[in-house]
Amino acid sequence: MEIIAALANSFIELFKAGAATFVSWVTGIIPLVIVLMTAVSAVIKLIGEDKVYSMAKTATKYTITRYTIVPILAVIFLANPMCYSFGRFVEEKYKPAFYDATVSFLHPVTGLFPHANGGELFVYMGIATGISNLGLPLGDLAVRYFFVGIVVILIRGVVTEKIYTMMKK
Amino acid sequence: MYKSVTIKRGKAGWGGPLTITPTDSRNKILCVTGGGIHPVAQKIAEMTGGIPVDGFSTGIPDEEVMVAVVNCGGTARCGVYPKKKIFTVNLTAVGKSGPLAQFMTEDIYVSDVTEDCITFADVEAVTASVKQVETIASQAKTKAQAREELAKMNAGKKKNIITRIGIGVGSVVNKFYQAGRETIDMVIKNILPFMAFVSMILGIISASGIGNIIAKTLSPLASTLPGMIGISIVCALPFISPVLGPGAVIAQVVGSLLGVEIGLGHIPPQYALPALFAINAQVGADFVPVGLSLGEAEPETIELGVPAVLYSRLITGPVAVIIAYISSMGLYS
């Protein structure tokens, strides 16, 4: 009987650590994410995605803006997965590169604008939780992730564009 | 005389497309949008030949209502008409919600509708309308008549300033409310289930001692630049990356594991930034064809685009880690 009780206890122990993690995430992450996501998506609804269309169209003409400004606007205003639909403003030969740039921005954006990819927050949040546990501020990491993200999507766009052109020949 | 129209949902909308055809007994377009006839209701009326009715000033029997045009924020009206089995067009971007949500189905309800969402139902109807160009004079007359009737209906109850402010405030509040609803939806449908499953895994890992093994293998790998470049190359291999991609689940689980190790001090905090790129070199590799077709790419572009993106990652994956590593200088030190 005692053995069974001991087994039951250690079985429950196995999940207590998980329960503690769950509670710390629910109380530590969810409230801020809810308020932030509500605020940002309300502002974006008020501005309206139509307003950024003309800007996105002009920006597709130049290499640098095509793989920076256009994906950023698409991701922030249309969010995952509708952001890819901005591809229709881009010339056919640039579409794969544009996709690569857009999809690569879907996680760097979540540090500052979690609404844009609410279903996949934990790439950033998972690592960020560790930083919070050390008592360090997250702002610096979120901002750097965002800006390094911009540099990376530009490189991805340019490289994929070159590879696609080579493959097409 | 009467024509069928198809009403599609708007960009942020839900439901539909609805195809509606007026009949002699059922030809009223009931507009319940805070007084007056909304342009969408007017356009449906013009295209179908039905009669627009202001629901705020005129009561009509439900049997005569062909379609109801509402601007409901998601509690009552959007469910009331579907419950009565009346086609419902909501101008606000509201999905299945409110106490009557179970009655709102895609074959009776469509939302975020603008004037551009309304088209003639089929090719026959369109060609018929082209034929009628010859008799345009008479048709123009009916349109003019419709406008006149409309003007008459709206005359004498011009919206005063208080009503207009009220409608304006209402639409802003509605947007905030909708944003809140979408956020809570996201938390319940995506974030909480993910937290439940990952905290269970993390709990078992740490309580069972597997955590120590990970700390000894993964941590040293993720706390050196070559180690992280290695992770990114493995993630970017063209035959592995599409398998790792879906829902970013793998990246999220690995991110959470690394987070634990960072929290325990096994990985220095400044490695967080390059690690974010190392574990995510495969981002979206599974989604290339879908993403490209959302961007209206041709089939040939998709065929060549998929390998182009996958090969490109082999170069840009490690490059991203190096850039992030350089950019992490001065972070948390």
TrEMBL record, chain A:
The chain crosses the membrane at residues 22-47, 67-87, 142-159. PROSITE patterns: PTS_EIIC_TYPE_5. GO terms for cellular component: membrane. It comes from Pectinatus cerevisiiphilus. GO terms for biological process: phosphoenolpyruvate-dependent sugar phosphotransferase system. Keywords: Membrane, Transmembrane, Transmembrane helix. This is PTS system glucitol/sorbitol-specific IIC component. InterPro entries: PTS_IID_sorb. It holds the Pfam family EII-GUT. NCBIfam families: EII-GUT.
TrEMBL record, chain B:
Residues 1-192 form the PTS EIIB type-5 domain. One of its GO terms (cellular component) is plasma membrane. One of its GO terms (biological process) is phosphoenolpyruvate-dependent sugar phosphotransferase system. The keyword Membrane applies. The modification Phosphocysteine is found at C72. The chain crosses the membrane at residues 191-215, 221-240, 310-332. InterPro entries: PTS_EIIBC_GUT_C (IPR011638), PTS_EIIBC_GUT_N (IPR011618), PTS_sorb_EIIBC (IPR004702). It comes from the Bacteria. The keyword Transmembrane helix applies. It holds the Pfam family EIIBC-GUT_C. One of its GO terms (molecular function) is protein-N(PI)-phosphohistidine-sugar phosphotransferase activity. Keywords: Membrane, Transmembrane, Transmembrane helix. This is PTS system glucitol/sorbitol-specific IIC component.
